Amino acid sequence: MEVLAFGVQADEKPLIERAFAKGHDIRCLDVFLAEDTAPLAAGHEAVSTSVNADLGAQVLRILADGGTRMIAQRSTGFNNIDLDVAGSLGLTVARVSYYSPYSVAEFAWTLAMAVNRNVVRAASRTRYFDFRLDGLMGRDLRGRTVGVLGTGKIGEAFTRIAHGFGAQLLGWDLAPNPACVDLGMKYVEKEELLASSDLVSLHVPLLPATHHLLDAEALRMMKDDAILVNTSRGGLIDTDALVDSLRRGRFTGVGLDVYEAEAGLFFLDRSLEAIEDDTLARLMTFPNVLVTSHQAYYTRDAVTQIVETTRRNVDDYAAGRRSDNTLVPRA
To answer: What is the pTM assigned to this prediction?
Structure first.
């Protein structure tokens, strides 16, 4: 089967080509799937997409009209896919339900430590041989309270690292994770977690119920000197409310690997263009904010698992099989 892969990064391409060499022809494009690029898929029975692809109703119709019958998304999240429309068009949809949770958990801690210890500011100074310590003071995290919103596989991995720091652990989820409880985590209501934590990290999926989980009211509950980290989905935080909090001098640091309006920006070079997103532009001006480009998952270990699972999803489609990764089964 010939598969067309959209939104393929340069580092990702050889891993995809190697994985799909075992039974399928793969063509990789660096452009992302959207309404204007969807016609490129004409004649390809299967397409593979990234998390920032537009798989709304119109794009799905273009794909279906062009002969596409299977969509293999290279991510765990699928909030960008209109599954009802996909089903009505007879499109099979699959995702990657699991990959290394350590990639994201470790990067969340990278962001937390970078903003806590002012690493970006320090590196910028020393590049110009300015070795002053003014404004670089951080704080020990041993004994501090770390709040984890969402204690699934990634949240558990993040908690294990927090335990290694000697932190006090608070958790919030639909049900306690026994592994986190064994590490000393106390499960509390979201309001108590936000009010008590020195560091808050988000590890929940983006669903209608979790959209703007941290809205203006929730952000007001947090300590003025708290650290906030989000490596999950941008829509979990009301960014306008976050900017307002930062403008009033709140929070020691904020580390964001995701942004709620990142589609059309992240994974692309916009350095020579005017950014029309005023909220993101304002966010970037705060010296205690570190924004990265949705790269938490981006380790060789995790990406290898993602592309190999994606190939197996295509194999399953070709064989008429279903798996735990199947979101919309083959008609």
So the answer is: 0.91
